[in-house]
Every structure is written in structure tokens, then in C-alpha cells.
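Title: Comparing notes on inverse folding

I've been comparing how different people in this forum approach sequence design from structure. To keep things fair, I'm posting one structure and asking everyone to reply with a full sequence. Here's the target:
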């Protein structure tokens, strides 16, 4: 949990330093549905895109269920928190590793714009968003810089 907290703080600071139009909304942003609560790692509002941008940080490899969870969060944001004149919310899943084919199948039927590292940021996000959001590589570099170095296994 401590590593995840450090990663989230560093990612938040990095995004705000970029100056792309991001406004910080919250960390562990609470979404309530009935008696249940859900929490988004980081939530921003992008002034130029006029959209909420949710970031979920996964210390391990991408799993298909991450896409379903993000899609669920975006549906809640769109229905309950998005202003009438805002664009649909955007989701970004940052993970240590991903298998492109697995990501492709996980996102194939999702209606909300979801990015997973470089894969979806390049192929799913509309052209007008490029240059207004940090690249997946920039985000991945922040995550890698925060993770402890892996020690090489010796025979």
C-alpha cells in the first residue's frame, strides 16, 4: 500500500507539473452507488477537453478486469458527476506490464475512452486530445522511476 501511495502522489504531481490543463479533483475519489463505495485513485478535470479524467494505477501487470472496473467508474462519473456541457469522462489505466492483444480484447466492446499505457492512448483517443494529455510513455516513466529496481536473479 505504501508503494502505491507514493506512486499516486508522484503521478499526481507529475500531471500537474505538465501544465496540460489538468485540474486536480481528488485522490481516492469516492463514488457511491447504493450502500457500496468505490474509489478512483486520481481524478482530474481537464479544462481544454472539458472532461473528467480518471487514473487507476496498477503496480502489477494489466488484467482484463481492470478495463471492466474502469468502464464502470466512467459510467458512474458520466451519470453522476459530469456537468451537462462536459464531454464524456476519460479513463487511463497505468500498469507495470501489458500484453497488447489482451488489452485489445479487454477494451474491444467498451464504449468509454480508456487508455492503457501507449496502446489505447494512441489508437483510441481522438486526434484533438493528442498534445493535451501526457503520453503513455511519460506516464510510464513516472511509474518506473518510483518503483524499486528489480534485483537480478543469480543462478
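Reply #1:
Here's my take.
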Amino acid at each position: 500500500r505504501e508503494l502505491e501511495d507514493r506512486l499516486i502522489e508522484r503521478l499526481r504531481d507529475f500531471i500537474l507539473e505538465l501544465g496540460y490543463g489538468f485540474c486536480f479533483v481528488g485522490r481516492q475519489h469516492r463514488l457511491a452507488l447504493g450502500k457500496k463505495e468505490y474509489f478512483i485513485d486520481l481524478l482530474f478535470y481537464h479544462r481544454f477537453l472539458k472532461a473528467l479524467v480518471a487514473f487507476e494505477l496498477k503496480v502489477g501487470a494489466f488484467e482484463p478486469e481492470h478495463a471492466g472496473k474502469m468502464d464502470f467508474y466512467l459510467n458512474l462519473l458520466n451519470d453522476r458527476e459530469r456537468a451537462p456541457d462536459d464531454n464524456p469522462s476519460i479513463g487511463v489505466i497505468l500498469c507495470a506490464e501489458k500484453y497488447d492483444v489482451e488489452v485489445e480484447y479487454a477494451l474491444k466492446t467498451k464504449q468509454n475512452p480508456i487508455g492503457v499505457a501507449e496502446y489505447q492512448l494512441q489508437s483510441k483517443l481522438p486526434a484533438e486530445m493528442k498534445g493535451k494529455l501526457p503520453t503513455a510513455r511519460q506516464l510510464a516513466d513516472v511509474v518506473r522511476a518510483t518503483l524499486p529496481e528489480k534485483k537480478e536473479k543469480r543462478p
